[in-house]
Amino acid sequence: MVSAQQVFGEISPQFARLTEEVLFGDVWQQGELSLRDRSLITVAALVALGRTGQLPFHYQLAQTHGVDSAQLSALITHLAFYAGWPAAASAFEAMQPVMGSVCDDESKEETASCL
Asked: Which ranges carry the Carboxymuconolactone decarboxylase-like domain (predicted)?
């Protein structure tokens, strides 16, 4: 995965530093919630707010925290009823390029649940 420094460092070194040191270095490391829980919460918030630009990064991060493609699919489907069908459809569109390679490695049954 790319670092905040790689993405934002040239245009905003301070934002990159805050992202790495405060957001991921402190907030994400607090013990009350697991990294898996934080990933699910973050994906849910991004889907509900329609912030699809950040979803590919957080889909990959969720995978590293133990969330599989079927669970992400179930999360987005559940959110469709609370955040709206268009928000969920956009989230699935953002999921395809990221999860495609993962889904290709799974069984055909699981691949169908990917998208």
From this structure: 13-96
pLDDT at 100 over 80: no
Count CA within 13 A, CB hemisphere, residue 115. Answer: 17
Are 26 and 51 in the same domain?
no
The structure tokens 């992400």 sit at 72
Give the domain extent around 72.
34-114
Cα-Cα end-to-end distance for the chain = 23
| CA gap 95, 76 in Å, rounded | 10
The C-alpha atoms of residue 81 and residue 67 are separated, in whole angstroms, by 21
State pLDDT tens for residues 17-76. 999 999 999 999 999 999 999 999 999 999 999 999 999 999 999 999 999 999 999 999
φ and ψ of 96, to 5 deg:
-55, -55
Do 80 and 46 share a structural domain? yes
Q: Indicate whether 107 pLDDT > 70.
A: no
